[in-house]
Design brief:
Elements lengths: L1 H16 L3 H9 L4 H28 L9 H16 L4 H14 L6 H14 L13 H5 L3 H10 L4 H8 L6 E4 L6 H10 L4 E3 L6 E4 L16 E3 L2 H10 L6 E5 L5 H8 L4 E6 L2 H14 L4 E4 L13 E7 L14 H4 L5 H16 L2 E11 L8 H10 L3 E3 L4 H4 L4 E2 L9 E8 L5
Parallel strand pairs: 5-6, 5-8, 6-7, 8-9
Antiparallel strand pairs: 1-3, 1-4, 2-3, 9-12, 10-12, 11-12
Helix pairs in contact: 1-3, 1-4, 2-3, 3-4, 4-5, 4-6, 5-6, 8-9, 11-12
Length: about 425
Amino acid sequence: MNARSQASKILAKVIEDGQSLSVLHRLAEEQFEQTELSQIKYLTFVACRFFHRYQAVLDQLMDKPFKAKDTDILALVIIGMHELAQKDKADHAAINETVEAVRALKKDWAIKLVNALLRQWQRMQAEPQEEMPWNSDIRFESAHPGWIAKRIRKAWPDHYKTIEQANNCQAPMTIRVNRLQTSREAYLQKLELAGISAKPTPMSPDGIQLETPCPVNDLPGFAMGICSVQDEAAQLAAVLLDAKPSDYVLDACCAPGGKTGHILETGVKSVTAVDADSQRLSRVQENLDRLNLHANLIEADLSQPDWWDGKLFDRILLDAPCSATGVIRRHPDIKLLRRPSDIAPLVELQSQIFSQLWSMLKPGGILVYATCSILPVENTLAVDQFLARHSDARRQPLLPALEALKGQLLPNEQGHDGFFYAKLQKMESGI
């Protein structure tokens, strides 16, 4: 019950204050023991994941919404409704524990209301769901905010159901083997000896997907940098960059450093990694320290050139700031934090950084443009518009799996996240 009440407080900060769930979880790690922390994380994840589904129901059941100061009570109701719908535990236990959490928040006035809402929802589980007034609400059907669901359905009319389903599931745990220390085959054997079931990823030559997620410290050699946690789709950045050891490489928008580490693990000697967020840049350094690798880290606004010393790069990875609509399953608070008004400024920023970095690339050099978005306006349309403005840019072939949807990977329930890639070469003058 303490975990439940604490989870409701965290959710209130996400919903009302716009705080990141990952940041709030890191703060919780300093306050709670592992067992309670695991329960807090689970409850906050499922509440964010299915918030809009149950909000659509509450809009019908309640005469007026909860006040902003009582968002923690709303969060508790959402958690309880999900447990009743999924049969995570006995109905009476789900209701009683939720009511007790209300008491723990010292909001006794809400006890009767919460109890009544949950019991009403419990009774409705036995009735024909297709007759419920919220059944036709896109929020209920998709468990997404309406505007995101509409954009996904417009962009991917043949794929939206599998996208929504993948977004509403827990992502698998995928790791990247540090090829400077071992091979994927050898590390798979280490995992087998440790009793951890796993299989190689189909696209990334360094990727391994675990059958069941586990704490990172259970992974053999993790503390010594023998492996890192990284989704297979994100691992393709270094694969597509295909940098030689002697290349001068820029990793733009590098935090938290997964791709930086991977580039260095391919044998590249000189990497400059740039990000605008100093706190996130410190996480890049932490990751590199664990891997015993080095990059030149710079805090800077990549839409401006004032950080650059004028030396042209052989390879540039631009992992552009984006809507993150391809990684919703890993960061379900995106459903609560992202707004429709965010997209246009993001597209403008992407365009500014794209053009700025192109001027820093050597003729003959390669720029890989990447986002963890599945919205065409940030991906295929952005690249098409860039090519129309830059006559010296030429598309280069991608991996076969990426070519199918013109560089777009859609979230796969049993595999990779949603990601977009384009690989461009800067042509010599006059070509």
